[in-house]
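note to self: dont lose this again. the chain is below, predicted strucutre after it. 453 aa total, dont forget to put it in the shared folder this time
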Amino acid sequence: MDEQYDVIVLGTGLTECILSGIMSVNGKKVLHMDRNPYYGGESSSITPLEEMYKKFGLSDTAPESMGRGRDWNVDLTPKFLMANGQLVKMLLYTEVTRYLDFKVVEGSFVYKAGKIYRVPSTETEALATNLMGLFEKRRFRKFLMFVASFDESDPKTHQGVDPVATHMRDVYKKFDLGQDVIDITGHALAFYRTDEYLDLPCLETINRIKLYSESLARYGKSPYLYPLYGLGELPQGFARLSAIYGGTYMLNKAVDQLVIENNRVVGVKSEGEVARCKQLVCDPSYVPERVVKAGQVIRVICILSHPVANTSDANSCQIIIPQNQVNRKSDIYVCVVSYAHNVAAQGKYIAIVSTTVETAEPEKEIELALELLAPIDQKFVAISDLYEPLDDGTESQIFVSQSYDATTHFETTCNNIKDIYKRMTGTDFDFENMKRKQKDVFGEDELLPPPSV
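---
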């Protein structure tokens, strides 16, 4: 361990493993350490099921009704991949797809006035949905057609909308969309957690809706993909990439302290040895003095013996409860996966409810979502602090990742990765830099294998 490295990475969460992989592919000498005996950190999948019961202090064993413990891989942080999103691009460019198999998530739903509806995202679905009346449907269809044809570089497609100067609130007014449709568009298509986006330039929202539509167009049923055997497979895939390019991995390795000289990191001390480095990447748990608490997220992992009602018996789906429907500032998300993804025993489902905490009684905040899932065989409640770094790391060369938020996709995580990359290298993130070298022993480029439907 007593060696000089370009980059030391502490923690094997997805953010850390992707950055480790990119740096290794780019020729950096990387040492990757984790105090845990397993990969994934906050983004790991727990197996066998008995470990979940132990982790949450419930029991040392799982009930027999839960089937074989080894059949379970339970995600601690529930998220799906947007089929046309940034994480899938990262998987493709690095060819980490060769280590993973994906399934298309079967449906995307939104809650309105006590009922669950499929999210309409195409012109055809807009005309067929029961979410809105006839005239509202036509206006919504017009809006979707406008978004689909919108090209930032072609003013002819703008219909008088300035991508930078026009706020999203004014775009909705232009198409005369009502509050319910605005809720669906902003929260179920553009994935905003709050309504602050309404008074920001409209381009970001238009691009988010385009991403949803393009992701949906890729495979049909929904815009989301999910890896077989759970999300814990993702950090492991990128860890393998780093190892192929010379990265050194050490699990179950305690970190005693960071070695700082002249306000700059120069190494990490572990078990009496010092590994020296020029830059350090880590999750917030390794540097509590360099982060600030930015809020909390509640996640309730529920085990069910049935599909969620009103989802057409889907083996997997997402349900979004927009904040206005429940008099909150932020949305509630429900991710559902099942035995079909090799993450649960036969006939069992895992539904994970998550939201940003707003009151002193977080469990009461998600009661409505739990009612949608009833009956629940077992629930595991986790309330996690969200941390952000106190500075950008350019002076100390210590780059701290953000905690995983309540959203059920990886776009915010990928934005954090791109931001850290830019601060570390001084250059904008470019997917081309993630490509495996042409003389890689693995040979030709591969496309994302088609997910099973």
